[in-house]
Each structure stands twice: as C-alpha cells, then as structure tokens.
Design a protein that fits this description.
With 67 residues, the protein is α+β, with helices and mostly antiparallel strands. Helices cover 52% and strands 22% of the residues. It has a domain of 46 residues. The relative contact order is 0.18.
Amino acid sequence: MMKKLILSFSVLVLLAACNTGESYTHWTDSTDNQTQRLDEAGIKYEIREGEIWVREKDLKKAVACCS
C-alpha cells in the first residue's frame, strides 16, 4: 500500500513539474526601438502579428526599461 502511495505522489509531482509553460502579456506594437531596448535589457519577448508580448514575470522590468 505504501509503495502505491509513494508512486502516485511521485507521478503527480512529475506531471506538475512538466506543466511550467510561460505566460506572456501584450506589451505594445513592434518597433525597432522597443525590440532594441528589450534586447539590451535582456528581457525575453515574442513578436506575434506585429505586437510585442513580454513574459508576465518580466513585465515590471519592461516597464522600467522601455517607458
């Protein structure tokens, strides 16, 4: 019984660890100036359909460097 409990707990922990997707927030329209500032600050971003999307955890850094 104890082995099944430990195995079930281990599987749940592994599955939870695999679900670490990063969420992004819309920042602004894509311009060379904005992307250059984000690159210089070391902030990860994505460009989707002409818009810059910044990781949620980097949002405060983006506001500080690019505003």
